[in-house]
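Annotated sample (chain length 341).
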Amino acid sequence: MTGSIYSQIYTKFVRTGIFLAVVLSAGTAGYWFIGGRHYSLVDCLYMTFITITTIGYGEIIDMSGNPAGRIFTIFIAVSGISIATYILSNLTAFMVEGELSKAFRRRKMEKMIKKLRDHYILCGVDGVGFYILSELAGTKRPHVMVDIDREAIGKVLETFPDGIFIEGDATDSDTLSVAGIAEAKGLFAITGDDNQNLVISLTAKQLNPNVRVVASCKDLKNTDKLKKAGADAVVSPTSIGGLRMASEMVRSTVVSFLDTMLRDKEKNLRIEEMAVPATFAGKAISELGLGKYPHILLLAIRTEGGWVYNPPDSHMIKLDDTLIFMTTPEERTELEKILQS
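Output written by the structure step:
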């Protein structure tokens, strides 16, 4: 994984700058002794500087008839010129190759991620990852993209220019830590490689046992392995695609309804779920005040004993019941605030 801007600058410039300072100091001290201490330290430093930079001015300290002094000058010149050339070449590469802008952009992303709570991490943005990203962005859920392929990230950013991303290997625990796995609500292991998804699932659960992991699986025989590695749910895009095609044939109107709901950018309706907190346990559905939300339609409640479909207003809800309802992202947010208050 690429290091932070500070580690890059330290590696490329600070340590080298220290070596250059050592050469300048050694040269200044050396010329002071070689000159019989008759020259000031400024003159000795100036002599060292013009030697290193090959400016070519005349000798400030006379080296004629002093073989040891000229050998020392050669040593200072070779050492200093090598270090200065290294610094200049790296500085040029840092600017020309865009490494500086990448480093600052990464630092900006890391600061934004540190502010996130209960967000989602997408490990893999190509293929199915793009559609998951579209859904998270469309429903205004905070998320972070992680992919080792900068080109793939670039393509996604063309559609979602404000997306938060980390360029790195999602199987690396350091990468997931930077992506905020400790504060994340969920993680998608969707790289397209079952082995990588397995390692990502295992690593994510080790870093945050409470995070929900949904993994993609190409080969159905790997489903159990992914679940044992920590995935809470395993989805096969091939299997889902087959079911979708069958539904298109036998219940096309239902499929059309769901597609229209998902693609309607004006109303942006979604079927959502929300757990009932302790503050509302033992109360009737009517006390939730759902009537003031024009787009909220309560479809069902999942209880310990099973499902209650189309529950009446008099139905008493219990702690940890899960409400299943259709709504917009804005009204979902308002309902969350009420339930959490």
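Annotation: The beta strands are 120-123, 143-147, 165-167, 186-189, 212-216, 233-235, 270-275, 297-303, 306-309, 322-327.
Annotation: The mean pLDDT is 86.
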